[in-house]
Amino acid sequence: MATTVTHPDYAGQRIGCQLAWWVLDHAARCGRHWVRRGTTEPGLVRYYRDIQGWTVVRVKERDGYTVTGLARAAQLMSDLTISRGAVAQTPRSGS
Predict the structure, then answer these.
(1) Is 18 in a helix, a strand, or coil?
(2) Residue 65, strand partner residues
(3) Which of 5, 16, 60, 88 is the most exposed place for a label (fewest CB within 10 A)?
(4) In angstroms, how far is CA 22 from the centroid of its own chain?
(5) pLDDT digit string (tens) for 61-80?
(6) Rounded to whole angstroms, what are the CA distances from 61 to 3, 16, 28, 65?
(7) What 3-state class would DSSP assign to 12?
(8) What's the Cα-to-Cα distance from 88 to each of 58, 60, 91, rounded to whole Å?
(9) Other C-beta atoms within 10 Å of 48: how many?
């Protein structure tokens, strides 16, 4: 996952959090063990880590930015408010 951005009109509705939970759920249903995400924003690193439960796994300087990689174990998420409808799956090598 790359950093997500929510339009200001929808701020506070936890849309980004629901999206992250959907990704964790989808990954678990597809037999994946981990989900990774990254950001260049220190405030988001703290939010992802402290509120959403992600773990920092890498910090790297790239093109003048500090890029932080985070990871979280894939897991079924029972409290999703967005659909778990069928999603086309494309096999990827090395995933």
Answers:
(1) helix
(2) 62
(3) 88
(4) 9
(5) 999 999 999 999 999 998 77
(6) 17, 25, 31, 6
(7) coil
(8) 30, 33, 10
(9) 25
